[in-house]
Specification:
This protein has 217 residues and is mostly helical. It folds into 2 domains: 55 residues, Orthogonal Bundle (Arc Repressor Mutant, subunit A); 135 residues, Four Helix Bundle (Hemerythrin (Met), subunit A) (Up-down Bundle), CATH 1.20.120.530. 67% of the residues lie in helices and 5% in strands. It has a 3-stranded antiparallel beta sheet with strand order 1-3-2. Strand 2 and strand 3 form a beta hairpin. The radius of gyration is 18 Å and the shape is globular.
Length: 217
């Protein structure tokens, strides 16, 4: 839907929700969540009434930045650069979540953690990394910094489009690595819930995968 909006003039009607959901081939829940994110990022608008529907929004500089990320071709260099920048932004996101996270935010994060834990228990690394992406996307939703949120989420989408998975540190079995990363994210959310600033700083340092060649979680 973001690419469709990017290809047309601002104000162009894209279709009704039902028409676009069928065109995208996704569930109602997935479509509504995507629509919420696109509205938040200023990519589409919703108008009600007989001639209503979804419309391409006027492109702000922030939206143009987002589209420039979407336009990357996914070459390995692009993806690696996206990972490095994404990892560099992680501390800002978690710190903002510490100060701005509400009880509803924490509940959502714990629900997403449950999906990660279920995937880890089943030994399903692909499901684990997808659940991990959803958790990080939800953390990004908490920050009031719209530029930070938009840049981070679009970098995450670039990585996700090319289906990079979890690759453990040298000498560490994949199953153990997934369990360790899952436990780390549980601890991060616990730190948010307890407003534990010192603990969060320590955990963020452990979370940084910049020095690990290919871990995406």
């Amino acid at each position: 839907m973001a690419r469709l909006a990017a290809r047309v003039e601002p104000g162009t009607r894209l279709g009704t929700k039902d028409e676009l959901r069928v065109r995208c081939g996704v569930s109602v829940g997935t479509f509504n969540e995507t629509l919420r994110l696109l509205q938040t990022r200023g990519i589409v608008t919703v108008q009600r009434g007989p001639r209503g529907g979804l419309f391409a929004a006027e492109q702000s500089p922030m939206a143009k930045l987002a589209h420039s990320v979407l336009a990357l071709d996914g070459a390995q260099g692009d993806v690696n650069d996206a990972l490095r920048i994404r990892n560099a932004l992680e501390p800002l996101l978690w710190q903002d979540a510490l100060w701005h996270g509400s009880p509803a935010d924490i509940k959502d994060l714990r629900d997403l953690l449950a999906a990660m834990e279920s995937a880890a228990a089943a030994g399903d690394a692909d499901a684990f990394v997808r659940a991990n992406w959803r958790l990080h996307e939800r953390v990004a939703d908490i920050t009031p910094n719209a530029l930070l949120r938009s840049l981070y989420v679009h970098l995450l989408e670039l990585v996700e489009r090319h289906a990079l998975g979890v690759k453990p540190r040298a000498g560490v079995p994949l199953e153990r690595h997934v369990r360790d990363r899952c436990a780390l994210h549980v601890a991060l959310v616990d730190a948010l819930d307890g407003r534990d600033k010192e603990g969060l700083v320590r955990l963020i340092a452990q979370h940084d995968t910049t020095s690990e060649e290919a871990s995406q979680a």
